[in-house]
Amino acid sequence: MKKMNIQSYIYGITLFFITLSGFAQMPIFKRYYIADIPGLGWLANFYITHLMHYIFAGIFISLVVYSIIYFIIFKKGFGQIAKDMIIRIIIFSGLILTGSLLVIKNFSGTPFPNGMIIMLNLLHLLFCMALMIFGFYQLIKRKKELLSG
Ligand code: HEM
User: Fold this and answer.
1) Both 57 and 5 in a single domain?
2) Which of 32, 39, 137, 143 gives the lowest tally of CB atoms within 10 Å of its CB?
């Protein structure tokens, strides 16, 4: 079994908290009483989860930039990019692009029309769903590989 290195741990923890804090941007954890569970009250505090989302977005973008530089330096040649990697690149670019525009949207005085803000939110959510489905597909694929030895 391939040894999990420190980078995969940071990547996994970042994806978990960026997704959790992302969903906490929507008032669902209070509505479904999850925030009432002792120790989880912070999930209903928009400012805490908003700051968390920004911090983990920064870590996420740094990890992506690190992987790109690593790939360019050590993996010489884009011919080696597997199909899964292309899907991951599309999803990550979509999340970072829509996320960055949402950050700009949050600056006071940013004249984004309402329609664009709604579209950005929906697109960001769509890429988030795509990431979760893709992650689930990869988990099943890895399990199958493990079982088939
Ligand atoms: C794996 C990566 C990411 C996931 C899974 C994710 C997930 C989410 C989710 C589920 C939401 C709530 C959408 C809604 O309210 O309809 C959200 C909101 C947001 N995300 Fe992300 N996100 C990710 C990366 C990023 C990045 C890289 C940035 C910034 C560069 C970012 C910035 C934002 C902002 C600004 C909001 C809106 C908060 C508001 O309502 O003002 N996200 N994210």
Assistant:
1) yes
2) 39
Is 13 inside a domain boundary?
A: yes
Whether 53 is in the pocket of ligand 1, judged by its Cβ within 6 Å, is yes
d(CA 132, CA 120): 18
How many CB atoms are closer than 10 A to CB 124?
Answer: 20
pTM: 0.87
127 and 69 in a single domain? The answer is: no
Higher pLDDT, 79 or 131: 131
Number of domains in the chain: 2
Distance 129 CA to ligand 1 centre (A): 12
Determine whether the shortest distance from the Cβ of 124 to ligand 1 is under 6 A. yes
Q: What was the pLDDT predicted at 51? A: 96
Query: Which of these three, 77, 104, 135, is where a domain ends?
Result: 77
